Amino acid sequence: MEVSHFVKHYSAQNTQQQQQHLLVRYNHRYNICIPWQVEVFTLSTGASRSPYGNLPRKPIQFGYRQAVNGFYYWLATDTSTIDGELESYNMIISFDITSEEFREIDLPDNLVYNRSMCNLSISNIRESLVVLECDENEGVYVVWIVEDSVPESFTKLFTIDVPGATVLRVLEFRKRGEPVIEIEEAHNDPFDDSSSLVVYEPNSKHVSNLDFSGTGSFYVNAYKETLLLLDQPDFTVFDKGKRYIAKKRSL
Known about the structure:
Helices cover 2% and strands 54% of the residues. The chain is an all-beta fold. A hairpin with a 5-residue loop joins strand 7 (85-96) and strand 8 (102-105). The chain starts with a strand and ends in a 6-residue tail after the last strand. The longest helix has 4 residues, at 109-112. It has one helix at residues 109-112, and strands spanning 2-14, 19-29, 40-42, 47-49, 60-68, 71-82, 85-96, 102-105, 120-125, 128-135, 140-146, 154-160, 165-173, 179-185, 195-201, 206-214, 236-239, 242-245. The protein has a 4-stranded antiparallel beta sheet with strand order 5-6-7-8, with no helix packed on it. It has a 4-stranded antiparallel beta sheet with strand order 9-10-11-12, with no helix packed on it.
């Protein structure tokens, strides 16, 4: 199924005369490399356009995304045919909100080829980009951080290891940097697939239970102010450069 991802961000270029808001869109089919499209939407004009800067190379497939301090980052895979064989390697694609420039960022060597992108994700710790590496064999996660906001300067920050349990996912980070994780405790019941949400303290390696448990999937997101159309009335719709008010549906 073809899907579209929309990235919404407020530009720093906020003045009384013009408030510019950017929307980046790209299309792809999972597991199939097809041409994608990147657009920038400016609220003041109500129209989309191509970015002013460069675009990523076409073989690149986008994955997880994260906003950090004026940049947007995607975990990505570059799939190319070399000597008749299909080869893939992992990387990060960055997008500068101000200059609208895309850039390729190299990952640590052990994450480029040795890890499937299914075992990698990216997140944000105190406005620093981090890469999360899942070690399925050990049931732990390794957290890599970009030092001093310098791309390609990755340092292993800590390993999330909970004795007697398997770390299933890292869902979010709190303000002080502690990860909120989903774990599955070791037990003898093969039919019990319940999991729990806990907070992991990297220094003490202590785990605090959040009293959320059960089967299925958990989703956690950091609270941020909602993207609002500041000077637009409710139900404003933009379509091909035209702006109109949609009718409110009655319940």
